[in-house]
Known about the structure:
By secondary structure, the chain is of the alpha/beta class. It has 2 domains: 15-119, no CATH class; 125-216, DNA repair protein MutS, domain I (MutS, DNA mismatch repair protein, domain I). Helices cover 46% and strands 16% of the residues. It contains 9 helices and 9 strands. The chain has helices at residues 3-9, 30-42, 55-68, 84-92, 99-106, 116-124, 126-145, 163-173, 198-207, and strands at residues 76-80, 109-113, 150-151, 153-155, 158-162, 178-180, 188-194, 213-215, 218-220. Strand 6 (178-180) and strand 7 form a beta hairpin. Helix 2 packs across helix 3. The radius of gyration is 23 Å and the shape is extended. Residues 95-127 have low confidence and may be disordered.
Amino acid sequence: MNYQDFIKSKHKRNDSVGIDVDHVNPLAKDFQSDVIRWSLRKGRAALFEDCGLGKSLQELEWLHQLISRGHATRGLLLCPVAVHGHRLRRSRVTTGRPSVHRHRIERILLQPCCSRTAITSRKESTGETVLKSKAIESYRKLKQLHPDYFPVVLLGDFYETFHEEAEKLAKIAGLTVTTMNKWTAEPVPMVGFPSYMTFEITKKLQSAGYKGMVHEKGTFE
């Protein structure tokens, strides 16, 4: 056996072992429907998706399809403690279905996943929370002092902005809005982008009417 044959012998293909479906939840967007059908067809699949792309709906619909077709009687969805309440609410309001389908969805067992590591990480995140609180304070000062510029704050290798500016930047630059302190009484919308995108983002902001971007150490124009 030569080296090329040896490499080929190590190649393993995950053949499709699942089911084909024609119709999925009408609430699903086109790309979500494609992902749901693909994962059902593969049978074993991993989805790596960013925030805000509707992962809860996708996995609930995936499991609904298996249950409603008799391939399963119940399911287990593991999720972090912080989001299990949202997941339960989402499972009860997966609308666009007759009540019998909602009843089946509610039979899904959602198990909060918590470990000592997760708890430790949560305690250690206090420093990060303080850092981002200072970042918001800097953002507010920049916004007040430089009204013609778009305020951003450097956190590590990313520039971040918050509140209404986050919504604006998401629309202008096609970025995704995430949320800081999401499970508190005062969630904060935020948007970030890596520092290597500074020139590209600045040009888009200028096209939208801003002079440029301002941060703690100067401006991008």
